[in-house]
């Protein structure tokens, strides 16, 4: 009886891991897109820009996680890079939501806090968060580099014509979040790889 129960648990575990392995494998297949995204981000940092990150719900905590990864690297010897999460100031978020509506909470901050040399990173589990899309639209209008981390089929954010959109192709929001963590750790690491080879950034500094 115990053996049958163990077999059932093993079968379930296989399914659980497979549900996570496939989206990660697809991320590996998108290695060129990931590299292009990191190179574009590194060039912006190299030119003096900062990273502006935002997301709803669970992705709001991811935004804070991304910001601290860049500002306070856990790996000794890696340089700190300027980053700010637009989800951290509760007074501003709730004030804008009350006065202008929830859809404007990130767009308003981008308009008033971001500079054209900056990077806007919007995170959405399903790619359909209206305020994340509006934040990216406001960033694009100001000349920022626009980057989306989304899930599912990419939603309206993937179809929004932004500079770089990386998709965790999973329908389970837990899996999407797990893949997003891998994505932004890869973004952080590869940005630093480009900084370790500054010629790759200086050659196109005027582009």
TrEMBL record:
<dbReference type="InterPro" id="IPR035461">
    <property type="entry name" value="GmhA/DiaA"/>
</dbReference>
<dbReference type="InterPro" id="IPR046348">
    <property type="entry name" value="SIS_dom_sf"/>
</dbReference>
<dbReference type="InterPro" id="IPR050099">
    <property type="entry name" value="SIS_GmhA/DiaA_subfam"/>
</dbReference>
<dbReference type="GO" id="GO:1901135">
    <property type="term" value="P:carbohydrate derivative metabolic process"/>
</dbReference>
<keyword id="KW-0413">Isomerase</keyword>
<dbReference type="GO" id="GO:0016853">
    <property type="term" value="F:isomerase activity"/>
</dbReference>
<protein>
    <submittedName>
        <fullName>Phosphoheptose isomerase</fullName>
        <ecNumber>5.-.-.-</ecNumber>
    </submittedName>
</protein>
<dbReference type="Pfam" id="PF13580">
    <property type="entry name" value="SIS_2"/>
</dbReference>
<dbReference type="InterPro" id="IPR001347">
    <property type="entry name" value="SIS_dom"/>
</dbReference>
<dbReference type="GO" id="GO:0097367">
    <property type="term" value="F:carbohydrate derivative binding"/>
</dbReference>
């Amino acid at each position: 009886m115990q053996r049958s129960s163990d077999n059932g648990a093993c079968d379930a575990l296989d399914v659980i891991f497979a549900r996570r392995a496939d989206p990660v494998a697809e991320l590996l297949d998108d290695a060129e897109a990931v590299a292009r995204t990191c190179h574009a981000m590194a060039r912006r940092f190299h030119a003096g820009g900062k990273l502006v990150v935002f997301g709803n719900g669970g992705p709001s905590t991811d935004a804070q996680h991304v910001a601290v990864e860049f500002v306070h690297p856990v790996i000794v010897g890696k340089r700190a890079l300027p980053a700010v999460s637009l989800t951290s100031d509760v007074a501003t978020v709730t004030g804008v939501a009350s006065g202008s509506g929830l859809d404007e909470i990130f767009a308003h901050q981008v308009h008033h806090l971001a500079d054209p040399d900056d990077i806007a990173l919007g995170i959405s589990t399903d790619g359909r968060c209206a305020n994340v899309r509006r934040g990216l639209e406001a960033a694009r209008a100001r000349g920022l580099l626009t980057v989306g981390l989304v899930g599912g089929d990419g939603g309206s954010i993937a179809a929004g014509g932004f500079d770089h959109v990386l998709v965790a192709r999973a329908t389970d929001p837990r899996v999407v979040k797990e893949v997003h963590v891998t994505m932004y750790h890869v973004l952080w690491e590869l940005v630093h790889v480009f900084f370790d080879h500054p010629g790759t950034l200086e050659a196109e500094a005027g582009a």
